[in-house]
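Researcher: First entry.
Model:
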Amino acid sequence: MADIRRLERTLDENVTWNKARINFFGEVHHRSRSSQDRQSGAFSAVMNGRAKPDSHYNRCQRFLRFFDLPFAEVAHLVVKLLGIKQHFVVSIDRTDWYLGTTPLNILMLSLVYKSVAFPLLWTVLEKKGCSNTAERITLWKSI
């Protein structure tokens, strides 16, 4: 329980989410760490309470509905939690992924720390091929 409260305090100090969203995220994060199955239906089953699994699932849906994750806030939080003060590497790269049969051309900004790249911000390019300078600048300025 102390881990949940510590996470909630950290989020409260660093993001602009409302208290209910912070509490929900803290609970789900804590419970999911011990769950082996993170698919949507099973994911809601790791939540506490006497409510039925369908009710927990609906709560998860309400949490995510109309919520645009503020990636710039998350990026600043990751830098703070990693304890990076200065002199870190930022990588901007383009990659092609598929969502089912739908091709996605993704321009991604990552923080490289101790040889690990942490994806922080990305945008889906509505075209084939490489990004241009204007697209990379727009992604950079979204931090």
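Researcher: Second entry.
Model:
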Amino acid sequence: MKIALFTETYLPMINGVVTHVKILKEGLEALGHQVLIVTADNNTRHHFIKDGILHCPAARSKKFYDYSLSSPISSSRLRLIREFDPDIIHIHNEFGIGLSGLKAAKRLDVPLVYTIHTMYEDYLYYIAPRPLVPAAKKAVHKYLYYLTSRADALTGPSEKCNDFCKRAGVTKKVTVIPNAVELEDFNPDNVSAERKEEFHKKYNIPNDYTIACFVGRLGKEKSVDLLLDFWAKEIKAEEKIHLVIIGDGPCKEELENQAKNLGISDTVTFLGKVMHDELPAYYACCDLYITASLSDTNSISMLEGMATGLPVLQRYDEVNKDQVIDGVNGYTFKDAEEMAKCIRMIKEKSPEEMAALRSSVIESVKQSGSIGLAKNLLNVYNSVIK
């Protein structure tokens, strides 16, 4: 089968959608299928295909995480896609590249699959002043309805996507296909004791401290500000518990100032941006992954932490309640007191108990590799072709 995957961003940029598409491509190719990645590239002025990637001219958007935005209409792009002759067009974003995938599917009479990765209601503050947010939300719902009505199948990484579609008046069912993770890359056995010792020395965190980490984009939608509030309320310096926040984003300086004003700079360290190939070692130096975000559908950063054996502390979200199962791969919390109770419970576990929990966490994501993701989506592809 020939599959064209349309994504606004791709390597070398790293984010959840890029990782998802990369893993899907690897799984599909391992199963013998041909894949063409169609993506925006602000470093080119003409369309070209190299190493299975169709690069499309684009302009960089400084306001929206430096993403490259491409025109949805291009005769050159359509010609190259027609030459590839896809059996399926699968779009992963909603902007210029995603819209061009929709139009290409119509022009070439090819089935269209649309994966909803992002709850754009949580990102409106990037593009709309507060008084205009209600109007912007209506526009988001209208556009989502437009896209979904033209797709032959909808998928998403969590039940939250179905909830989002219902609010937009979409009646089509979203097939939930959880995100995948690069299991071997995040195998904790690959990280040496010396590498862990380097981490502790570099960031001046004693070896006997329990370290919680959050990894992700530092935007308002990630609720890191709430996590800091909870931390200041319940976690005391003498408890030997430390929080590391890995990532960059528009709110980084604001969050650093918040930590300083809350008086928790001694127990919270902002590590900034870490290259993706270095992340496994950072995860392996920590004891648990923590997030207060309610905007994520099925966080790939969280799955990467789990693949490294980190139990997850996740703020309770009714729609995503099955992602973290208490005592199996982590724990959920609703407030600062519950968060602190969970951290202390993990801290007090014996080495044997902690080893058993880590093993259980890794086991919970063992089916989340590239082949599993590819097989799940091939079922969708085959259903729309039939």
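Model: Note on the second entry: The chain has two domains: 2-180+369-385, 188-364.
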